[in-house]
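seq:
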Amino acid sequence: MIYVVEDDKSIRELVAYAMDSAGYEAETFGTARSFFAAMNPSAARLVILDIMLPGEDGLTVLSRLRSAPETAQIPVIIMSALGTERDKVHGLDLGADDYIAKPFGIKEFLARVRAQLRRHEPKALLTSGRLRLHPAGRKVEVGGQEISLTAKEFELLEYLMRRAGVAVRREELLGVVWGYSGGEETRTVDVHIRSLRSKLGASGNAIETVRGVGYRMEKQL
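struct:
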């Protein structure tokens, strides 16, 4: 879940639309109080935070997130009209992972979101039956034999394996792997899935088609 805390309704709606178009699940809030009341730390993948909020401001929210063990590692992007170098340095020094000055372009915004999600993905070995994926070494093996994948095939497989058991929309895969923001041809995903299944042999059967949605990696112990 991506949480967006922004008091300007028009910006909240714009960000929510961009997130949905890119295939991300997001919740938006107009105040710090409503955000903390609803936030689930274990489900949080990213927090996008305005500074000038009513009541408790964004920098105070950031300090609270960083001081609590259950939220200290959640990546935070600040988006603010306070765009001087001094403002940015102050926000980053308080623990923000990135700082976007308003106004901003949606493509740049989504690119920064993708960068933070990639940066904070765990790098442990991923397994599914005889299939093993090594994120750090960018290596895939089936039954101990290394399989040659293209960069996009590797990223696609890694994303599905990290979300094993979850049906992932084609639009989300396009956004995360290819950087598309919605509306592009989704057959790109289908073509790469076919190639992955072919290269992985019997292990490729673990990539299931979810009709009308996208794909799901079978969850195996």
